[in-house]
Amino acid sequence: MKSMEIAGVAGVIVIAVLVNGLIAKVEDESPGGIENPNGRWREVCSKPKAYQVVIWFFGVLVVFWLLYLWATK
């Protein structure tokens, strides 16, 4: 493999680990999670936190990036 491919794979791995941690944080703070066992979904959805919006944005961005890579190969 070329060094750029190795760097790309390493970058994806690092980003995947970070995104996984952020998703776990969102799950823990969601109603029924460890941090919010008795909460309600309506409150969570009506006032999303900034990191929740960022996680969804980058998740959608990654999906489109993967679709682009798949379509151009």
How far apart the termini lie comes to: 16 Å
Question: Proportion of β residues?
Answer: under 5%
Number of strands: 0
- Along the chain, the helix and strand elements come as HHH
Helix-strand category: mainly alpha
Helical residue percent?
Answer: over 70%
Low-confidence blocks of residues: none
Number of helices: 3
* Largest sheet report: none
User: Which of globular, elongated, flat, extended, rod-shaped describes the shape?
Assistant: elongated
Characteristics:
single chain, 73 residues, mainly alpha, 77% helix
Q: Would you give an account of this structure?
A:
By secondary structure, the protein is mostly helical. It has one domain. The chain contains three helices and no strands.
Summarize the entry for a quick read.
By secondary structure, this protein is mostly helical.
How would you summarize the topology of this molecule?
Layout: H1 3-29, H2 41-46, H3 50-72
Helix pairs in contact: 1-3
